[in-house]
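ugh ok fine here u go
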Amino acid sequence: MDRSAQWLRRGLFGYRRRDVLAALESMRGQLDHMAVSLDRAWSEKQAAVEELGAIRAEYNARLAEEKARAERLEAEARAQAARVVADAEEQAARLRREAGRRIGDEATRLDELLRVREQLLGELRGIVAAYGDVLERAEQGRIAVVAPARDSAPTPLPQVAPIGLAGLFGKRVELDAGPFNAFSELAAFERSLARLPKVEDVYIRTFGEERAEIELTLTEETPLLHDLTAQLPYKIDVTASDDNRLTVDLAAAV
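structure:
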């Protein structure tokens, strides 16, 4: 039956029960299909929400882990920086102390050298004054000429006292050495001491009245008496006052 006949029949005779039930059944099927589709969409939405929640939880967990790791690294970096700063400050303090000690030693040595210079200048002034006095007296004809004695024997050199070779001296030894008529003689004697075995440093403490106080620093215990008498280019007389102090009397340079 075509659609025009159906509409004509419905218009003349109304709806039949069977057609209405069939239409309702069709609508219920559509509603069931829509409900199933809606349930599936809701289920998919819930699954998406749960998946999103799981992703968010995983992201938050990773974020918390990275934050904790960053805080741990920052704490370790701060601790390392503090240790580096402390080590640098300690090293700087040690360098300052070492520099202060060296400056103090050099200042002391400079004071000693200045004092020696003043002594030398005083002696030179005395020599110049005496020489001037001699010249003045010579000009005035008041100096008597003394003829040397022809049969006079040369003055014998002092004998070197016998010294034991077995005695060892410590790493610091003080010498009372002389006589030195000039500072150049003392400098030559200092260089001779520096060439001795096991001698690390030679330090002139004082110089005056033709004698010098000298401090020797040795690398190890050594038979210093033997080295002084056997290797110095001088004829000397050595007297040991104690274990770390010697009196050295020079007779003449070779």
